[in-house]
Design the sequence.
């Protein structure tokens, strides 16, 4: 039997794991039952599985039956979102106010299915080692750092990660070279003016007008400073000043989110935002304090690993199942932290189907996912693990 036939025979079981995890979602760093579920499964298959230090999450290691020098890491995230599910599915969340609206339940089932296939059917022919990273707390963007601190990447040569994607049809894999996801940074600007009576503005320094100027000036960064062929987002999402209509306040606070796909653009954005805030305030007689927080870097796939995944999809699933993603997403992924340490690629598990609810968008409580993504993802991960460890792919055919 080929890998496709074997995975098809087990697909219902993999999907049942997804539904069980879906019915019992847990928030970041609180995935206790999910962690227990994963740990039990991996151990029952003879995989060396250990906890993520004192945090939730599991690190599994499988040595192949043939000698090999390469270690390939495969990563999924296991956490849910603080939302009330509204899908009406029979296996909908049984936990009030928590649901898997980003598809991390499908990711977990996919990586479990991969671990099952590799350990129970394809261990003998595997030359090298596969590391399984079941990571907590992706939504709050801290989980991958904890995994790295706890040794998830020790001895690892390269890493692959995947995420559901409604724009790609279920049963297909989406991928692109270069940037896959944006960085996620933030700024907090406090304009210090001088409060006073609304009727006597000349005796005050009005931070509201200055704050409004800064908001407008910040719009020129994307339109006038970033090169037209580069991408960036500067969004002011929070603006507060004063409490009364007839009082000029002392201060105005602006907060915003900054996204980009390129490390140089990212660095420039920080400098330009600081400069505009400080100098606009200074030019209007006030001062501005800027706190800039660098969060998650951009997720950038390395060509060689994109090629490896693409080749495997074409060979094992067929060229019609490979979709070239035309653009990156300006959303962010803490998978980027792994890619800062080892090379690899990030790809998409297509989850769109004929139901309109499968196209609403991730993080929507009504969103539905095509479960075809699970067997497709298992085949891709198993094939890529074989290819990147240098194992013989004919064993899968
Ligand atoms: Ni997600």
Sequence:
């Amino acid at each position: 039997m080929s890998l496709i036939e074997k995975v098809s025979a087990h697909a219902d079981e993999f999907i049942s794991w997804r539904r069980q995890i879906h019915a019992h979602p847990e928030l970041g760093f609180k995935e206790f039952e999910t962690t227990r579920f994963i740990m039990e499964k991996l151990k029952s298959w003879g995989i060396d599985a250990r906890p993520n230090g004192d945090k939730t999450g599991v690190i599994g290691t499988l040595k192949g039956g043939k000698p090999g020098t390469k270690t390939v890491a495969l990563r999924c995230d296991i956490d849910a979102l603080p939302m009330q599910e509204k899908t009406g599915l029979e296996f909908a969340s049984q936990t009030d106010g928590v649901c898997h609206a980003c598809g991390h339940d499908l990711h977990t089932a996919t990586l479990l299915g991969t671990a099952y296939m590799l350990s129970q059917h394809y261990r003998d022919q595997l030359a090298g080692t596969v590391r399984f990273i079941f990571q907590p707390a992706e939504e709050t963007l801290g989980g991958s750092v904890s995994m790295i601190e706890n040794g998830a990447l020790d001895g690892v040569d390269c890493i692959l990660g995947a995420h559901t994607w409604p724009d790609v049809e279920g049963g297909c894999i989406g991928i692109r070279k270069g940037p896959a996801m944006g960085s996620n940074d933030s700024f907090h600007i406090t304009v210090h003016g001088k409060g006073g009576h609304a009727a006597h503005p000349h005796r005050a320094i009005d931070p509201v007008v200055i704050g409004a100027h800064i908001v407008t000036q910040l719009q020129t960064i994307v339109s006038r400073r970033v090169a037209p062929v580069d991408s960036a987002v500067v969004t002011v999402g929070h603006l507060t000043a004063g409490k009364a209509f007839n009082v000029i306040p002392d201060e105005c606070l602006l907060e915003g989110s900054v996204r980009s796909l390129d490390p140089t653009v990212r660095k420039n954005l920080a400098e330009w935002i600081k400069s505009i805030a400080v100098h606009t305030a200074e030019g209007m007689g006030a001062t501005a304090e800027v706190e800039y927080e660098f969060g998650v870097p951009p997720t950038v796939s390395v060509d060689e690993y994109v090629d490896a995944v693409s080749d495997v999809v074409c060979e094992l699933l067929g060229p019609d199942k490979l979709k070239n993603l035309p653009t990156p997403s300006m959303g962010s992924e803490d998978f980027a932290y792994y890619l800062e340490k080892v090379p690899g690629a990030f790809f998409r598990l297509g989850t769109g189907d004929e139901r309109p609810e499968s196209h609403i968008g991730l993080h929507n409580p009504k969103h539905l996912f095509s479960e075809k993504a699970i067997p497709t993802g298992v085949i891709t991960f198993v094939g890529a693990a074989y290819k990147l460890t240098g194992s013989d792919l004919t064993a899968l055919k």
Observations:
- The domain at 184-296 is CATH 3.30.70.360 (Alpha-Beta Plaits).
- The radius of gyration is 24 Å.
- The CA atoms of residues 87 and 195 lie 51 Å apart.
- The chain has two domains: 3-182+298-396, 184-296.
